[in-house]
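Follow-up to my earlier ticket, as requested here are the two runs.
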Amino acid sequence: VDPRPQNIRKYADGGMPRKIEALKKVREIYSSDETIVRAVDAKMVKEQAALDFLNDAHFMSGVLARTADCIATLEGTLDSETTDWLCSDSYTMADLFWGINLYRLKALGMGYLWDPEAYPHERAVYRPHVRAYAERLAERPSFRHAVADWGVAFN
C-alpha cells in the first residue's frame, strides 16, 4: 500500500514532472544567459531529487512516521503550556515555524495527523491541542496575509 497522502501522490505523479519540463523550456529560451542557465539547472536538480524522494514509498513511510512523531511531541508540548503560544505569552518565531509547517502538512493532505474530523484517514489521530493551535495560527492576520492567502489549506 502506498503510504503517501493523495496530494503528494498526485503532485509527484503529475505536477513535478510538468514543473521539470517547464524548467527545461525556460532553460532553452534563455540558453544564451549563463546565469539563468545555471540557476535553472540547479532548480532542475533540486526538483528531480524531490521527485525521486516522493516516489520512494519506503523512504516516505519513514518520513511520515517521523512527521507523526513530531506532531505527537507538539501535542504534548502544547498540552503542558499555559499560554496560547509555544515559547512565551507572545507569538514568536517558533510559532511562525510551526504555522508554516502545519499549513504545508495540511496542504499536502496530512491534516489527519491532528484533525481526523476534517481529514478522515485510516491513520488519523485526534490531537486537540495541535488542532486548536493550528486554528489560532491561521487566524492571525499576518499569517493569513503572508502564508495562507497564497494557498487553500486553511480557506
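Run two:
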Amino acid sequence: NHAGYVGRHIYPPGTNFTGGTMYAPPIEMLIDEYFPAMNSLQGAKKLFSGFASRLTGKKADAELPAVMFICTDGKSFDESKSFELINGLQSKPVFIIFLGIGIHESSDGATYLNLLKKKFDHVDTHLFLNGNFKSDDLYSRIANPKFIKWLGDL
C-alpha cells in the first residue's frame, strides 16, 4: 500500500481499507462480481435464482471460469475469514493463485498459503523470495499440473 495507492486505485470509494494484509476483501469483491447468489440467496431460494435476479436486479452466478491472482508480501490478518470464503468457492468455477513476493518458505505467511494450497484443489501458491523473477518463470509455475487439472475438470 505504497503511499495510499491501494486505497486510491484498487478498492472502490467507501471501502474500509485498514492497511494490513487481508485476503478476504478481494475475494469478497470476486464473489460480489461473479457469484452474487452466494451473498443474496440462501438454501432453497437458490432454486429460484433466475426469477429472483429479475425481481431484485441481482445477476446470476457466472458460469465461465475465473482465475484470481492475489499478490502478497506478508501474513494474512484475516485467515479464518479468507479460509471460509475460499472454502465456499470450492464448487464454483474459480481458481485462486497466490503469488507470495519476498516470502520465505519458513515464514508464517508461507505456512498459511501452503495450507490453502494443500487443502483446496482450486488454490495454488507460488513463493518468490525476491522480486527478481522472470515472466517465463512465473508462467511455468502457474501452468503446472494442478492448474491444468482444474481446467480439465471444468
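The only thing I checked on run two: The first strand starts at residue 66 and ends at 72. Let me know what else you need.
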